[in-house]
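Form 7-S
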Amino acid sequence: FIEIFDENCDMKIHQQDEFCRICASDDYLREILSPNFT
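Output:
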């Protein structure tokens, strides 16, 4: 996961955007992961 990010910045940006969008649309994941962003 991290290795892919290091090898491909474009992939990193895409994956992060996708991840954020998924979290924003998923109350359960957002509730579980929210402490990681604070």
